[in-house]
Automatic annotation (TrEMBL):
Residues 1-20 are annotated as: Disordered. Residues 337-390 form the Helitron helicase-like domain. PANTHER family: DNA BINDING PROTEIN-LIKE, HOOK MOTIF PROTEIN, PUTATIVE-RELATED. It comes from Lactuca virosa. This is Helitron helicase-like domain-containing protein. Residues 1-18 have a biased composition (Low complexity).
Length: 595
């Protein structure tokens, strides 16, 4: 809560994220105890009853039991509440743009190829473990020096399969055979960027539509999105992301038939040239949001490709952003062998459902009291999992003026295992920091041989406020401890939590009381700091075999890059909010007379 008084709530999907670091190092001296007053009222009792009602059950979102009648995507109950019903059909914005997006089904892959994705035997396990490298090998037409550790039998199987069913591969083979017969001619392969068929029902082009062999000059009939593969040019051509064959070329293992990807001319459902509407065509975000959905009785190579799916998502969103920037200038797992990190799309969707539920509990059910305003931002750090920084601005009647109120809402102690075994288990799993320090010097929180989060905190018999106005929470030396990695952690290592929120959401939920401008500025720094970034070093060594005795000449380039994880890519493809504020307030560039 804050100097306005507001509440700071951090909601995270990661079980080991610790509480945030405040700018100033807080000191114990000059502590003054806040007087304890009995302010219990009928309204307090009513709030306690609300808490008891909420605390009864863990919030379980269940399975994807709803099916969109237009796009046939499977959804969770919460997502299904936002449907758009027309007649007997119900559609949803997240999967098919409320029925506007219509794409053809991807042709079912051969059964023996699907079995590699199902990870049912040693060959399948090897394939899935190295799927990104297999994709790179088939993408670049042949075995490389890195393929010696891969299963040559799998590589041979993939080549034979793609040769027989993939039109793009057939075109490359045709060009190669032609060049082998006539090595002296100026031969070019044109991968055609335009399609004549309707993109809503058609995505498997024939060889004549995909490519054309050109001898000599290209001429003026080449479209700016065509891809030209030439045998005698030393220059490189940048492949346009809007080319229909882009995804098929980039991900031959996900599109074994060479299926068309996104096209700029895919109309919305029931739209033709005579339709008078502002937006007639499917956007790239809508295209990818449609493609990354689970559907009933459909085995998706994309969704089951694990690490390659993560790469696909990041590529997809960078394509979306590239298209947007270009326009400004001129989208469970219990019965599978997949791990949660293999489906960042599901992680993002469930986190969004849970986050919306948390905001509803705070705003409408007044779990912490009457809230006047809410601001949050969603972050995706380099571990990839999403978490939210939430700032609540409380009504003046709920600003926790006394220690009694703070201790009732926020706890920094290990609960009694016998009195509340469920809470004890949750604190043990989600709300203990460390071990760090000398017990674990490699802990991510360590900086200059000390914990950057200032753990362990000091023992304290009563909650107090220091000379700078920061609360110092009660952490009694009562002998309680939780053992992690062979280290006993006591109350000094507890991350601040709210009992009801922890029981209801069973995740890392850090709650703090904030009453100083400095701490509010700290939160808003998180809310407005922009995307994560990473520094990348690119090195080139001149160590050719012809001159082994020459000194190594290293050329290093450093790039300051935006870091984009698969979870963030999923979040943005689905169009979820990264920043949220309630109520929405916009400063207008004018004012009313005499105001």
């Amino acid at each position: 809560m804050r100097a306005t008084n507001s509440s700071s709530v951090t909601r995270s999907s990661s079980s080991n994220l610790s509480c945030r670091k405040l700018n100033k190092k807080r000191k114990i001296p000059n502590i003054s105890h806040i007087p304890i007053l009995d302010l219990t009222s009928d309204e307090d009792l009513r709030d306690q009853q609300i808490h008891q009602q909420l605390i009864s059950d863990y919030l379980d979102h269940g399975d994807q039991t709803f099916v969109c009648t237009m796009g046939h995507a499977q959804l969770w109950t919460y997502e299904a509440l936002k449907g758009n019903t027309s007649g007997k059909k119900t559609s949803y914005s997240m999967c098919c743009g409320n029925g506007k997006v219509e794409l053809p089904e991807l042709k079912e892959a051969p059964t023996n190829y699907q079995n590699l994705f199902r990870n049912v035997d040693p060959k399948g396990k090897n394939f899935m473990k190295n799927i990104r490298r297999f994709n790179s090998i088939t993408q670049n037409e042949g075995c490389t020096s890195t393929s010696h550790s891969l299963d040559i039998e799998i590589i041979s199987f993939l080549k034979v399969m793609l040769d027989s069913i993939n039109e793009l591969v057939k075109c490359y083979r045709m060009a190669r055979d032609c060049f082998d017969e006539n090595p002296h001619i100026d031969l070019k392969l044109r991968l055609i960027g335009r399609r004549k068929q309707d993109g809503r029902t058609y995505n498997l082009p024939t060889a004549s539509e995909v490519a054309a062999l050109i001898v000599g000059d290209i001429g003026d009939a080449i479209d700016n999105r065509d891809i030209i593969v030439t045998t005698k040019s030393g220059s490189l051509q940048r492949i346009n992301e809007l080319h229909p064959a882009y995804l098929g070329l980039q991900y031959p293992l996900l599109f074994p038939y060479g299926d068309d990807g996104y096209r700029v001319d895919i109309p919305h459902r029931d739209v033709d040239h005579s339709t008078n509407t502002k937006r007639r065509f499917c956007t790239m975000r809508e295209f990818f949001a449609y493609r990354i959905q689970d559907r009933v009785n459909v085995f998706s190579l994309i969704l089951n490709s694990r690490r390659l799916f993560q790469q696909f998502l990041v590529d997809a969103y960078t394509m979306i952003e590239t298209e947007r920037l270009y326009y400004i200038r001129n989208q469970f797992l219990a019965d599978t062998t997949l791990n949660p990190e293999d489906r960042p799309d599901i992680l993002s969707r469930l986190f969004k459902i849970t986050l919306d539920s948390l905001i509803k509990d705070l705003k409408k059910k007044r779990l912490l009291g009457s809230v006047q305003a809410v601001v949050y931002t969603v972050e995706f750090q380099k571990r990839g999992l999403p978490h939210a920084h939430i700032c609540l601005f409380m009504h003046s009647d709920y600003k926790l003026p006394t220690v009694e109120h703070i201790d009732r809402v926020i706890s920094a102690e290990i609960p009694n295992k016998d009195d509340d075994p469920e809470l004890y288990s949750l604190v043990s799993e989600f709300m203990m920091h460390g071990p760090c320090g000398s017990d674990n010097p490699k802990c991510p929180c360590m900086s200059e041989n000390k914990c950057s989060k200032n753990f362990p905190k000091p023992f304290l018999e009563n909650t107090s406020v220091d000379s700078n106005g920061y609360p110092i929470y009660r952490r009694r030396n009562d002998g309680s401890f939780i053992e992690k990695s062979g280290v006993k952690l006591d109350n000094r290592s507890v991350v601040l939590y709210h009992k009801t929120l922890l029981k209801r959401y069973q995740a890392h939920v850090n709650v703090e009381w904030c009453n100083q401008a400095a701490s509010i500025k700290y939160l808003f720094k998180y809310i407005n700091k922009g995307p994560d970034r990473a520094t990348v070093e690119v090195s080139q060594n001149n160590n050719g075999g012809d001159n082994d005795d020459a000194p190594v000449d290293e050329i290093k380039d450093y790039y300051d890059c935006r870091y984009l994880s698969a979870c963030e890519a999923s979040w943005r493809i689905y169009g979820f909010d990264v920043h949220y504020r309630y109520p929405s307030v916009v400063r207008l560039p004018f004012h009313l007379p005499r105001k």
